[in-house]
Amino acid sequence: MSDLRAAIVQDDDTGRVLMLGWMDDEALAATRATGYVHFFSRSRQRLWMKGETSGNTLRVVEVVPDCDDDAVLVRARPDGPTCHDGSTSCFTPWLWRTILRREAEAAPTSYVATSLRAGTSFAARKVGEEAVEVAVAALSESDERVISEAADLWFHLLLLLRSRNLDPAAVEDELRRRQR
């Protein structure tokens, strides 16, 4: 096995960092030859193509080595979520990751799981309630109360997105698009 180099994968369309993997010479050659990102799996000690089991592949746009060739930047177009947990990126904010984990665990006492089972209409009502509470707090209550109510709104907005099977990264992408 040749030396491993860090491979930072970046979404070519959004610039978002999607993941970090490891490439040896064989993985780098397979990536360049096939047009799909390959890594060396340190846990399995073998070459693997990203998405070989999930179908969530990364189509290569460009591979750029760093100045001393011990790391590469891979600009790619993802075919589906990149992270094994279903997120757009492996560098997903903790609250979104927590929501996904609690949904997957489906504990009967979990507020997240129960709320998602209740559906989009429940989540939409909660967003409306929490938005009003933020507005009222902003006009007549302490900063601490505004922060508390904003946290509730933020959380319920993420639940609403999840109930619609939307990733918050799509909201970021829309805001970036509006800047142009």
Q: What keywords describe this structure?
A:
4-stranded mixed beta sheet, elongated, two-stranded antiparallel ribbon, Ubiquitin-like (UB roll), alpha+beta, 2 domains, 180 residues, 6 strands, Helix Hairpins
Produce the secondary structure layout.
Layout (H helix, E strand, L loop, with lengths): L4 E7 L5 E7 L1 H10 L3 E4 L4 E4 L8 E8 L5 E8 L15 H12 L5 H8 L1 H21 L2 H21 L4 H12 L1
Parallel strand pairs: 1-6
Antiparallel strand pairs: 1-2, 3-4, 5-6
Helix pairs in contact: 2-5, 3-5, 4-5
Q: If you had to describe this structure to a student in words, what would you say it looks like?
A:
This protein is an alpha+beta fold and about 180 residues long. It has two domains: about 5-80, Ubiquitin-like (UB roll), CATH 3.10.20; about 95-180, MazG-like (Helix Hairpins, Orthogonal Bundle), CATH 1.10.287.1080. It has helices at about 25-35, 95-105, 110-120, 120-140, 145-165, 170-180, and strands spanning about 5-10, 15-25, 40, 45-50, 60-65, 70-80. It has a four-stranded mixed beta sheet, covered by helices on one side. Strands 3-4 form a two-stranded antiparallel ribbon. A hairpin with a 4-residue loop joins strand 3 (about 40) and strand 4. The radius of gyration is 20 Å and the shape is elongated.
Taking pLDDT < 50 over at least 5 consecutive residues as the criterion, the unreliable ranges are: none
Number of domains: 2
CATH hierarchy class name of the largest domain: Mainly Alpha
Radius of gyration: 20 Å
CATH superfamily of the largest domain: MazG-like
What is the N-to-C succession of helices and strands? EEHEEEEHHHHH
CATH architecture of the largest domain: Orthogonal Bundle
